[in-house]
From TrEMBL:
<dbReference type="Pfam" id="PF02954">
    <property type="entry name" value="HTH_8"/>
</dbReference>
<dbReference type="InterPro" id="IPR025662">
    <property type="entry name" value="Sigma_54_int_dom_ATP-bd_1"/>
</dbReference>
<dbReference type="InterPro" id="IPR029016">
    <property type="entry name" value="GAF-like_dom_sf"/>
</dbReference>
<keyword id="KW-0804">Transcription</keyword>
<comment type="subunit">
    <text>Interacts with sigma-54.</text>
</comment>
<dbReference type="GO" id="GO:0009399">
    <property type="term" value="P:nitrogen fixation"/>
</dbReference>
<keyword id="KW-0472">Membrane</keyword>
<dbReference type="GO" id="GO:0005524">
    <property type="term" value="F:ATP binding"/>
</dbReference>
<dbReference type="InterPro" id="IPR025944">
    <property type="entry name" value="Sigma_54_int_dom_CS"/>
</dbReference>
<dbReference type="InterPro" id="IPR003593">
    <property type="entry name" value="AAA+_ATPase"/>
</dbReference>
<dbReference type="Pfam" id="PF00158">
    <property type="entry name" value="Sigma54_activat"/>
</dbReference>
<keyword id="KW-0547">Nucleotide-binding</keyword>
<dbReference type="InterPro" id="IPR058031">
    <property type="entry name" value="AAA_lid_NorR"/>
</dbReference>
<dbReference type="InterPro" id="IPR010113">
    <property type="entry name" value="Nif-specific_regulatory_prot"/>
</dbReference>
<keyword id="KW-0238">DNA-binding</keyword>
<keyword id="KW-0902">Two-component regulatory system</keyword>
<dbReference type="GO" id="GO:0003700">
    <property type="term" value="F:DNA-binding transcription factor activity"/>
</dbReference>
Amino acid sequence: MRRTRQAKEAVAQVLAILHDYLGLLHGLVSIIAAPQPRMLRVVAIHTSSRLVAKAAEEVRYRRGEGVMGHVLEHSESVMLERVSLAPRFLDRLALYDPESPFIAVPIKGPEDDTIGVLAAQPDGRKDVSLPERAHFLEIVANLLSQTVHLMAKLTGSRCTTSERDEPRGNVRTQHGIENMMIGSTPSMRRVFEQIRQVARWDSTVLVLGESGTGKELIASAIHCNSPRARCPLVRLNCSSLPETLLESELFGHEKGAFTGAVKQRKGRFEQADGGTLFLDEIGEISPTFQAKLLRVLQEGEFERVGGNQTVRVNVRIVAATNRDLESEVKKGNFREDLYYRLNVMPIQAPPLRERLADIPELARFLLDKLSSQQGRSLDITDCAIEVLKKHHWPGNVRELENCLERSSIMSENGVITRNVLSLAGLDDGGSPSLADDGTLDDRERLIAALEQAGWVKAKAARLLGMTPRQVAYRIQTLNICMQKI
């Protein structure tokens, strides 16, 4: 611990000198995050803000992700004339001036492998050129090499010890919020902060947002950063089951409770005992079942189907919906008392169209995942990124993922270009289609998608970023006539 602290202090002094005397502002050093060789983590940053310094401890960059990840992957320096003109740049700390240059250089290890990245933002001085400053930073990176190598070794050793002796700390390391969810826009930083605030308590959380916005990921981040992280996280989509099966699925059943119940079965509440139960599409359950759920939330007890023995559980509830529950309460479709029980801590998952600046980072993260699945390297051009940023994305991140998977399949060399996106059915981003129109309500949007898809449910589901089962359920609940088939 002492040697690690001394190494960090030495690096911090170098960054301070760069900032105070040489006009290289907000210097940052990141190293390979043991035991993850494809991940960079920030270990030192020069800033006067304690909040930024604290937030920097959780920042990670995947290999190939953003400017920092590019330097790690290609072992080459990057010079940006202006940050705002570089789609790859990820300002996760909201620290850098978008109208100023930026430099990032590799820090090489003893075997000439890249073990870290040194980055800084030059001030407005004109007497020294950007390449000259980049060359100077490369010299500084070489001088830091031995110290950074020592930090990487000590950190790796501590990680190994922590994996053995501190299982909960290991959970937190693996499931840091920024590692689970992608985004650096103000709306996503607000979500991250809300997750941090609520994770340590047992309060019920209601995650609100459109389909495909990552509500389940928010639930996972809350669980994995909570004191319940070592206990189960159990998930259930309430809209996927009829009410009779939903009761058995949640509460379990006794042997002989109904035809086919050949033995006692624990429900999701008992499976999640001590942990977290994530109830997706909570707005779809019937008023009758709402009353049964309310009792469990109030008293923490229930009876299995076909039984009379009361079962007590200690479960944290995270619920999610794409409906406006407050409006549903006013219409009489959702119990007011249940709504207030659920709505203790609401978190709004922003739609993708309101966080378009996150698309470069999201796209490269999703392509990294697809690369692993397909066993080949995938990339996307800056022009293609601009096309993605112009799209309306009614299906949100799920639709973006589908689009990139479709495009990757159609790309023979593994590079997604503007033309590949066009072949995959994404235009250059003119006016949104009827199904993309954010002014439509759920029923109008679904009808528009069905018309656009020739009334084929599977195609409409793809347009909306939903599953065919979800589309079929909404056709039924919204009373849409399918006579046009």
